[in-house]
Please model this.
Amino acid sequence: MGKSIRKNQSYWGEVIYRLRKNRMAMLSLYLLIAIIGLCILVPMLSPYSIETTDMQNRDQSPSAKHWLGTDKIGRDMIVRLFYGGRISLLLAIAVVVLECFIGVVLGSISGFYGGMADVVIMRLAEIFMSFPYVIFCITVVAVFGNSVPILIFVLAIISWPSIARIVRGQILTLREMEYMEACEALGISDMRRIFKHLLPNVLAYVIVYATLGMATVILAETTLSFLGLGVSPPTPTWGNMIQEARNTLIIQQKWWYWIPPGICIFISVMCFNILGDGMRDAIDPKMKR
Model:
């Protein structure tokens, strides 16, 4: 009975079924949901805000009043930790959405039309991929400042070539299929062929890339913040919370400054990577039994 039901499942039904059979991927998904839930609820329910200062209780270790201690001006660290998680995760989502939009559009045009359009877009992608990553970020931030929108733009504009190449490669294969020849014979417009008949078949690969890309963006934001190029304080992110612990004294004696955000980054990145691998296995037809 179960096998007959599965035979009637849609493609995405099969993908979800295989993903649910992957225990590590599902555990990672549940952990990510828990982290996102904490990032939403803790700043809302806490009696403290990210701006609340208490100079009499600054640099306090964890206690019943402040579960993760306080910073150098008496701000509650647990509120800043989960509010910073909001910023880090929203920034990662925004970067991935923007880079996927740019990459999917340009990759589709390149793969579908070929010729000069393909040459120009792929050479442009190679130019962006050859930029020295850190130097490019330093230059843009020095000129325009290190606000959240600028950081999103910098990370997206340097990352879109990867997904563009994936989409281009898939469309180069799909455009030679018989159903695409039928679409051409029926006089269906190019845009309709691309967005209705080609991109839905590439969507699975884009979703896998986006999931893995979330982990990459979180690490990139952490790296830039550690170099002083991330989101400017007092707005907290996991990256700039760790950046505050560059002092050896803080690392040795004030673990609550850097260990909690470090653990959140580690768990989030690990979960996104495991979930991305699980989705790749679920989507790959070779994994179907």
About this structure: The mean pLDDT is 83. The domain at 10-287 is CATH 1.10.3720.10 (MetI-like fold).
